[in-house]
Amino acid sequence: MMLSSVRIASRRAAAVTGRNLVVLRAASTWANVPQGPPDVCITEAFKADKFPQKINLGVGAYRDDQGKPYVLPSVLKAESAVIAALMNKEYAGITGVPEFTKAAAILAYGADSSALDRLAITQSISGTGALRIGGAFLARFFPGAKTIYIPQPSWANHAAVFKDAGLTVEKYAYYNKDTIGLDFEGMLADINAAPNGSAFLFHACAHNPTGVDPTPDQWRQIEAAVKAKGHFSFFDMAYQGFASGDIHQDAFAVRHFVAQGHNVALAQSFAKNMGLYGERIGAFSLVCADKAEQKRVDSQVKIIVRPLYSNPPIHGARIASLILNTPALYEEWLLEVKEMADRIITMRAALKANLEKLGSKHDWSHITSQIGMFAYTGLTPEQMDQLAKEHSVYATRDGRISVAGITSENVGRLAEAIFKVKG
Ligand SMILES: Cc1ncc(COP(=O)(O)O)c(C=O)c1O
After folding, report:
1. pTM of the prediction?
2. Which of 14, 86, 181, 182 has the largest count of CB atoms under 10 Å?
3. Where does the Aminotransferase class I/classII large domain lie (predicted)?
4. Distance set, CA 164 to CA 93, 131, 255 (Å)
């Protein structure tokens, strides 16, 4: 008798004897699955708080000045047009909707980029999926050590994605907690200390969680160090346009590296800059040496994608594609991205101004010199606990606040709370 039949038979016997509950539990296939750690979920504590003026600075998504989720008008128009076109729901190819990936590549690398005609690109399940495909590609084909260096700190999911893809994860210095800024010397030292030909992950703009980005001049020096060591660069660009409000400025690092001859890997997300979070729309691309290499790489990307999810969803790709390929919608979208970025920048300035008005002697200049959705306040975990318990202000214990959760209405109260906790 096969093992599975033995198990079923013993369950039946147990049911007959009336001891089924106990025996079934003991025989459960998943009896030894350990409990994972709880999600770092501030939403629960936020929900439980009954104070009407509570503030949630933990969300990783844009909110308008009323604190509401925001659907971009250009997205609404594109979506209406997609629905009105009554298109069929056939599968996309393995690498997705071609009009979307072509336009995504132009958006990232620039319309005149030398990379475009030697680029292997695939649509992905947003930025996370792009990182995962890239991780799997490196795990299979990267000729150096199967290790990727990520910044310390980095987006919490980076290490998990790359480890699950089969890579070893190492950290390079990035953040200086004394200056609440970039540890530029430490970063260069770690780039120089890594074995020649290592793989490095860089946040293209709006570093998450710190909001600290290298300046263009620092990027130039980073590029020179990376080139001198023969390292490979993998860019994660989850916030193009969302950081400065200018899609070209935010793509500076990627484009500079490509112009200097680096055949980079790139993960793109349209979650933030188009507000298409739940549509899961992104792209993974690899700049290749030439057309022949591009063909070979493309074939292997397909071999990675096919057994993972066969082919990607079409709805978000159609929306993004229509925006990127329709001049009037594209112009409208650029303005909306800038509006979102500007609101964030305005809220940073307002928070700093309010803290100064209250008489804080602390230097808050990092609030406005940092960029993107997140700000590192420099508050300790204990101070963050105090913010939550005494002031109903919720954010992660590492001191990171989502500036998207700040509004014209709550910024004054937020500043008062931070002032009371930090001085
Ligand atoms: C740095 C960074 N990379 C990638 C992502 C991926 O997000 P998504 O999979 O929603 O595109 C995020 C989202 O917060 C991020 O902050």
Report:
1. 0.92
2. 182
3. 53-418
4. 25, 11, 29
